[in-house]
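Lab meeting notes turned into a lecture example. A postdoc, R.K., suggested we walk through two folding results consecutively so the class can see how the record format repeats. The first protein's sequence and structure tokens come next.
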Amino acid sequence: MGDELDPRVLRSFVAVAEELHFTRAAARLYVAQQALSRDIGRLERQLGVRLLTRTTRRVALTPEGERLLVRARELLALHDRTLQELHDLNDGHPLLVDLLAEGHTPARVLRAARERAPPAELVARFHGGFGAALKLLLAGRLDAAFGRSEGLGRPFPAGQLARRLIRLEPMALLLPGEHPLAALDAVPLDALRGTQVDASVGNDSAPEWADLAVGLLAASGAEPSPRHPHAVGLDETVRHLRSHGRPILTLLERPAAPSVVVRPLIEPVPLYPWTMVFRRELRHPGLDALHASADEFAAREGWHEVPPDAWIPAPDAAAFGLGASPALRPPRSRH
């Protein structure tokens, strides 16, 4: 029998032991079910005992599994507490923050946080989507990340991560200057009916964006464009826009470029729920500065206000207690 117990494998065992269901445990850990089964088999071989009994209908703990569950919880709690205490002693440890992409709302929050807490080093990362950032958060390779925390196809891992609403940002279209919709000051959603709109469904790093975008377009009678390689950065996005000519669904606050325009969507106003997610046990002056800066922006610029005529995805409205008022329903046709 091996002399060392891998904390990652112990976490896998605890998840299965608590869920008593491999599919739910895999979703909780954001891993493939096959990988989870391999971890449990490896642990049983290492210990030389059967920890679980499995049939096609149920999973149950053996007496040995029940004893290990008690100790595994204790070991993992001690492991996490020790790492956090060492982390707290290391004042120079930088806070790694994923901003999703350059030039959006999280960049403003980060800039303000750096001014508020100059001794705390905050290091930005750009992984292009919350789906990609989430895996790094769960692996301990990121401390915090911004993005939409719903629409990932599995429950939010509340046992390991905490989250807070940062901003309900109006959504918009990125358009070539000569596009007919560019002549409008704002674009009613009904004007998109029958139009093909680029919803970035080819960005595998951001399933949460595609989930929101496809739902919004379906509710407005528009159609998402075919899957394509994701354009990264402003120059590539503009090149893609000029090449294909389709409106690109985007956020109101974003970098612009010559020959393209950003037009807000209205009737109703679709809102993107920016969320900040961070490791639940994390204590860091940089995180405190991010919270304080987000609070200041929300108070000064009304980042949490919901316009009377608004659309918010139902899962996000439920997650943040925004209510199920008629204003949150999908847009209806005028015809």
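The second example is placed directly after the first for contrast:
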Amino acid sequence: MALKILVIEDEPGIRLALKDELEFEGFDVELAEDGPSGLASLLQSPPALVVLDLMLPGRNGFQICEEVRKRGLPTPIIMLTARNEDVDKVRGLELGADDYVTKPFSLAELVARIRTVLRRTEPRNRDAPLEARSIQLDPRRHCAFKRGVELQLTDTEFRILALLLAHPGEVITRDEFLKQIWGDDVYVTHRTVDTHIAALRKKIEDDLDHPDYIVSVRNVGYRFNDNITRS
């Protein structure tokens, strides 16, 4: 069953563009064009995630987020706004928003952020074996194989591959790699992610000039390609 995303956005063009993109990505999309109707829809039938515009008629995004959290609902919320003030971002996060995207934005980035937030909140058996195409990974034994041959991976490479294999076909942003692999207390950059991905590719790709397992998504991150594209 497709996950439901509620989009509360008063600008018709953005609202419909989000609906088309999210439905294309396999989500079930519900729309609301103002604060009161959006909040009513959210409370009546909580979605998997809410894309919430900040500046809404009737009731703004801050008020909706605050009300949802006061009621104890854990529904993930991504705030969407044209404002670029740090104080607004901090306030939104303090009220319980899970992420914050500033207009203008790319649809690909927003979809990646939605998947990132959903991954953070989903239950997961971290010890379960993972497999996609010809790659197998066993977290308990801390080993990985390609076509039955064991891969000699560093610990960081192993954890990166595990994150990719846990979500084949989905884009994982560089920021999520930083958070999941290195944590919040270690200062590393997007370049660090790229360097480790390059090292991992050397060990699993059949053709480094045309990577087919770990695919780059321009300006966003990487995904594990779960479809065989070449013979």
